[in-house]
């Protein structure tokens, strides 16, 4: 799978480690190896995120599989001498002895992942994402080849349907079904859009997938193109994701050179082009119809559904929009079949899920776990437990996600189980908080985000988010009206029912779940003696201050 | 770097020509308003009313459409920015780890509020929903460099690096 030499040093280069000086360290390692005269035996390879993200620059050694963290320039000389000349592990910085196939370094103590392995992140941290040959060496583009030569579009859609894959962007819509709608549309040309406008605070799984294994996303898109009959695809990506843009651009070029994208792929008459569109910074553009408007150069406001994008999407043509992680699941499914995919995860939601775990825990990072794993397992098996204090609450799925109390530590995290409880899995961020975080304070911060990001198209969301924000600010200051909590509950219900797009609807998730599990704490912010004053001409605009994001 | 206002008279026409060239090159593509605005901001540094008028006239669309798009996206700036842009991440992960204190300290240190530019044009201060570097929370970004795990104490040293 990797190019030949006796040992490889893998340097994890992603946005996090670059900040800790990963590139400098890579250069330094190469210089040191040359100095020691072992450059023919040891190869230095750049790769995506190896896993731990709070540990500075992380490097892995193949084939032994050790992982070293917190590398600094000063120790490199000693490290190279100790590890390669003397041939013993450099204990000072050793994080883990084993990085074997399919095991996330942050999860090396977990039986489950060892058993199932990874699907989406299989190559991340192992191959050089900028070298297409390494991806091909890891069975890359084999699925596309098989699909084009042996399978019919209908057959592919059936396989995806049978696999039970649901969209990983947050809503959890069955992917196969979505594809069959786009396939059934008669108009042409059809378009494919990869939604990489990951804007949910705390979520950056898509970025790490694109940085670590860009070809896997491209391959998934090409297979989708063949299945639904589209020849043009766009990746709509956040402008902030410079490294992803750079690596995807290179990946597209390399694949075109080898005839894996572009015209007459694999000698068939299937053509497929991928282009990159850069967004201009707006959270609501993650909603698929708002994304379409943004791509057409308009304000990123959501459109009325129906017609769904599968019928009338980009430039009013049939369009299929999927998340990065969803596309990354496609090639393994086609290659190994739907039965293989179903072995992982739960019956109703097969497969794995990539999470970013953050907050007051010992090992924040990127993990890929089977669907249906519980929060307790994530915190104690994968994240190494709480870093300080006691577990108080967790927010699942970014700012628009539900807030879980300790009561829900043992609920399996998968779409159907959570729906039964009225919750949603969201986009894949898990923020874990200890008792130092006050719920009213935390929600004020969430609501401020929504006030800023509400696009203003529908009044429910535009006004509702603002009212929510002000209510929680009063709760935070312990001067809420006597009936504040009922008002909040009513307002949240209204937002959920009547907001135009999922942005406004999802405001209800953190609010309602907080009321449900932390009602007692929120009541403390209510002042029972504070009654509503009648609105008069004199007091109606009193105290109104336009909200600039970040101002208090 | 020179203050941009000094050389304004000399290069304005060249700037507009450069923008016009870009617009001409993309005239037949659909949905190219946002790339044009990206380009305009790269050339002028911010999108003044004059630039928005120019774009609207060149692309044969109404100014209200251009203005609507410009004000919608947080990337586009309506006022000139300083030589260095300081962006504080106020995403939930940073917030939990004390981003607000960092913001207070920055406002005090630079003497400006969010969305403002210092009088000497050295710094502009802004806020972002999430920079996607939550593992390093709290995070600030100065120009394109991200500084992670900062504290109010570390700020002075970081700010001093940018003249």
Radius of gyration of chain B: 18 Å
Number of strand segments of chain A: 14
The total of helices of chain B stands at 7
CATH topology of the largest domain in chain A: Rossmann fold
* Count of structural domains of chain B: 2
Order of helices and strands of chain B: HHHHEHHEEEH
Number of strands of chain B: 4
Spans of at least 5 consecutive residues with low confidence of chain A: 98-116
Question: What structural category arises from helix and sheet content of chain A?
Answer: alpha/beta
Q: How far apart are the first and last residues' alpha carbons of chain A, in Å? A: 54 Å
**Count of separate DSSP helical elements of chain A:** 21
Category by helix and strand content of chain B:
alpha+beta
Largest sheet of chain A: 5 strands, mixed
User: Level of helix content of chain B?
Assistant: 40-55%
Highest-level CATH class of the largest domain in chain A: Alpha Beta
Q: How much helix, percentage-wise, in residues of chain A?
A: 25-40%
Shape of chain A: globular
Which strands sit side by side, in order, in the main sheet of chain B? 2-1-3-4
Instruction: Give me the Rg of chain A, rounded.
Output: 25 Å
Description of the structure:
- The complex is a heterodimer of chains A (552) and B (163).
- The termini of chain A are far apart.
- In chain A, a hairpin with a 5-residue loop joins β12 (391-396) and β13.
- Residues 98-116 of chain A have low confidence and may be disordered.
- In chain A, the strands form three sheets. Chain A has a five-stranded mixed beta sheet, covered by helices on one side.
- In chain A, 40% of the residues lie in helices and 14% in strands.
- Chain A is α/β, with parallel strands linked by helices and 552 residues long.
- In chain A, α17 (439-453) packs antiparallel against α18 and α17 (439-453) runs antiparallel to α21 (508-523).
- Chain A has helices spanning 15-19, 22-36, 76-85, 111-116, 132-137, 142-150, 153-163, 175-184, 205-212, 214-228, 242-257, 288-295, 324-336, 338-342, 375-382, 415-420, 439-453, 459-476, 484-498, 502-506, 508-523, and strands at residues 7-12, 42-47, 59-62, 66-68, 94-96, 191-196, 232-237, 273-278, 319-323, 352-359, 365-370, 391-396, 402-405, 429-434.
- With 163 residues, chain B is α+β, with helices and mostly antiparallel strands.
- Chain B folds into two domains: 8-72; 84-160, 3-Layer(aba) Sandwich (Glutaredoxin), CATH 3.40.30.
- A four-stranded mixed beta sheet of chain B has the order 2-1-3-4, with helices on one face.
- In chain B, α1 (8-25) packs antiparallel against α2 (33-44) and α3 packs across α4.
- The radius of gyration of chain B is 18 Å and the shape is elongated.
């Amino acid at each position: 799978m990797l190019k030949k030499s006796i040992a490889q040093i893998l340097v994890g280069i992603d946005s996090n480690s670059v900040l800790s000086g990963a590139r400098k360290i890579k250069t330094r390692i190469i210089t040191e190896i040359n100095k020691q005269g072992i450059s023919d035996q040891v190869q230095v390879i750049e790769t995506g995120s190896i896993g731990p993200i709070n540990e500075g620059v992380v490097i892995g050694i193949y084939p032994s599989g050790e992982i070293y963290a917190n590398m600094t320039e000063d120790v490199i000389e000693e490290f190279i001498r100790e590890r390669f000349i003397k041939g013993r592990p450099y204990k000072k910085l050793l994080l883990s002895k084993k990085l074997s196939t399919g095991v996330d370094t942050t999860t090396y103590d977990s039986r489950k992942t060892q058993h199932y392995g990874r699907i989406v992140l299989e190559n991340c941290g192992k191959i050089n994402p900028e070298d297409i040959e390494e991806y091909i060496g890891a069975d890359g583009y084999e699925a596309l080849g098989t699909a084009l030569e042996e399978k019919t579009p209908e057959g592919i859609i059936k396989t995806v349907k049978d696999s039970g894959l649901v969209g990983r962007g947050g809503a959890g819509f069955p992917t196969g079904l979505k594809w069959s709608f786009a396939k059934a549309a008669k108009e042409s040309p059809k378009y494919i859009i990869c939604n990489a406008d990951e804007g949910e605070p705390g979520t950056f799984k898509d970025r790490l997938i694109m940085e670590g294994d860009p070809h896997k996303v491209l391959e998934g898109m090409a297979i989708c193109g063949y299945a639904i009959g589209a020849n043009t695809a766009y990746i709509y990506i956040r402008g902030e994701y410079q490294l992803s843009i750079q690596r995807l651009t290179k990946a597209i070029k390399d694949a075109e050179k080898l005839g894996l994208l572009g015209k007459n792929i694999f000698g068939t008459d299937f053509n497929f082009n991928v282009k990159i569109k850069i967004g201009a910074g707006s959270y609501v553009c993650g909603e698929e119809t708002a994304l379409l408007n943004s791509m057409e150069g308009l304000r990123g406001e959501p459109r009325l559904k129906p017609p769904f994008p599968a019928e009338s999407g980009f430039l009013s043509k049939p369009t299929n929009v999927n998340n990065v992680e969803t596309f990354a699941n496609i090639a393994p499914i086609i290659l190994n079949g739907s039965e293989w995919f179903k072995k992982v995860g739960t019956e109703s939601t097969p497969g794995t899920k990539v999470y970013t775990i953050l907050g007051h825990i010992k090992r924040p990072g990127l993990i890929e776990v089977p669907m249906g794993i519980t929060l307790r397992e994530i915190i104690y098996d994968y994240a190494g437990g709480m870093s300080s204090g006691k577990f108080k609450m967790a927010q699942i799925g970014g700012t628009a996600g539900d807030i879980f109390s300790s009561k829900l530590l043992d609920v399996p995290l998968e779409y159907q189980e959570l729906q039964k409880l009225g919750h949603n899995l969201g986009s894949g961020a898990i923020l874990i908080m200890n008792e130092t975080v006050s719920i009213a304070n935390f929600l004020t911060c969430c609501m401020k985000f929504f006030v800023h990001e509400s696009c203003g198209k529908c009044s429910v969301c535009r006004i509702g988010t603002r009212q929510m924000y002000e209510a929680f600010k009063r709760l935070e200051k312990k001067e809420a009206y006597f009936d504040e909590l009922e008002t909040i509950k009513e307002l949240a219900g209204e937002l959920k029912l009547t907001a135009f797009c999922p942005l406004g609807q999802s405001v209800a998730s953190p609010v309602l779940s907080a009321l449900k599990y932390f009602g007692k704490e929120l009541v403390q912010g209510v002042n029972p003696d504070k009654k509503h004053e009648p609105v008069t001409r004199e007091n109606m605009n009193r105290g109104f201050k336009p909200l600039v994001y970040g101002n208090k | 770097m020179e203050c941009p206002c000094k050389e304004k008279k000399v290069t304005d026409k060249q700037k507009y020509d450069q923008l016009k060239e870009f617009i001409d090159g993309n005239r037949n593509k659909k949905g190219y308003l946002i790339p044009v605005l990206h380009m305009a901001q790269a050339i002028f540094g911010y999108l003044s009313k004059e630039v928005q008028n120019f774009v609207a006239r060149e692309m044969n669309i109404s100014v209200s459409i251009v203005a609507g798009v410009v004000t919608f996206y947080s990337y586009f700036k309506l006022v000139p920015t300083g030589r260095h842009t300081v962006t504080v991440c106020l995403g939930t992960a940073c917030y939990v780890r004390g981003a607000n204190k960092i913001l207070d300290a920055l406002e005090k240190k630079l003497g400006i509020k969010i969305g403002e530019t210092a009088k000497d044009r050295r710094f502009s201060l802004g806020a972002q929903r999430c920079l996607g570097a939550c593992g390093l929370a709290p995070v600030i970004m100065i120009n394109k460099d991200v500084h992670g795990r900062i504290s109010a104490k570390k700020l002075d040293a970081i700010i001093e690096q940018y003249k």
